[in-house]
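Researcher: Re-running this chain for the archive, since the previous output was lost when a drive failed. Same request as before.
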Amino acid sequence: MAPTRVHAASCSSSLCNGTLRFIGFNWHFIGFYVFLLSLMLFLNGVASLVTYDGAALLRLHPPVDVAGAASWEPHGWRCCLDCPCALSHQAVMCRPSLRPSSRRKHRRRRGKRVNLAGCEGELAPRHGQSARGSRQSGVCWENLRSVTGSELKETVPVRDPGAAAPPQTRFGLVNARSVLNKTFILRDVFSQHGLTFLCICESWIPFGDSSALLELVPPGCSCFNIPRSRGRGGGLVVVLKSNFPFKQLTPTMSFSSFELCLFELCISPRLLVVLIYRPPKTDSNFLNDLCDLVADCILKYDYVLYFDDFNIHICCPDDVLAKGFLNLLDSFNITQWVSSPTYARGHTLDLVLSFGLPVMNLVTLPPVFSDHSPILCDVTLPCPVPVCEAPATRFRGLDAETVSKFVDCMSVRLETFNPDPSNVDHYSQHFDLLCNQVLVAPLKLCKSRPGREPWFSDVTRVCRRACRSSERKWKKDGLQVSRDLFRASLVAYQDAVRAARTAYFASSKQTPRIPGRSTKH
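Model: Regenerated structure tokens:
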């Protein structure tokens, strides 16, 4: 029995030594496992964190008790509305009580506490807090009073359902593919659809040539022209009404993958409008250049509008460039508004993007004078722009009939006109009253309309009516023959107006002028 006991003791000692040696070499792993096990036990009763965005936080509010007044709650005062608008707005005003900090020492304030006169009721201090503690924290509950719903009617913003909606501004985007032979057609599009801004891509206007701009810009409008610096094709033109306060901007960076035009609407807050044209050829730096441009724009402006012809098939989900472009828009929180094809072959190439403001009433017109569809949309500007009203004049419609009628009426009234001649003021008042009674030609207000082009003749009007008639016929039947007739009538209208304009300036020897023209390269 003795050898067996010695052998068992030696085995137990060797086992203990091995265990201690294992623990010594692997103590950091064991400590990590013990820490992880304790952390799991500690977090067993802790709820998971929930993240909210800004819109979700605005929707998190307690229900409103319409019939009640101000009530005391442990976290502060809750003021409930007793007006009908509380049901629609769910207005809750909460004021948390100020908790005195134990670490920060407040200076002792000198003065005397005075109760406010005219309080509607006494308010109790927070549960578990004395009046002295409330005064030390800067809050005197005796000086606070409850707020009723009648007092909050003026503070709660309630929109009148019968009030007029804010005015909208009409924008247009057209890929003209040469403005040189479509000047009067685009001018008619600007006037017919009531546009305020018309952004044109692929103007194809050579540098230094302004003859097309003379025909393109309507009266009372201005334009920006950015031709391509080298080579043919390309070019950007913006036509806008002159009553808008605008300023053309020079890009701070140069981009080789697309052409760019920037202008700012000088309103409060400011609005930046960006016009971009990207040639169809592939450029590996396009996404990087666009990222730099967008980042620079949204850092300086809260509201940005993009009118672009990127030549990217965003309607194709398998296109690699389209995927990268859409991911770029999502990363900058930019909204793309065009959902229908804008190209004659069925692709979405022309886009309208916005940052910070919505785009409404977007319409894609059928492609007729170009292989791209014109895009029209309405934008509610963040600040209404003052509209310059047309000058008005007052006049009286006097002729031989009105003069004879005035003489007859005045002769009848003068028979009973017998004021005191010694009092000049009394005499003048009675005579003025008499003239108002026999007024046969009152003052009329006449607002001057914008003058029509003097070179418009009967021939040009007939051509315009032919265009309208062929357009209605094509929209009614949708046949290719009607579309070809409509295009032919547009070409005839363009040639007729250009010939009439040339003949007018040749006979009158006047020099046309481009209002507000700006050309950069």
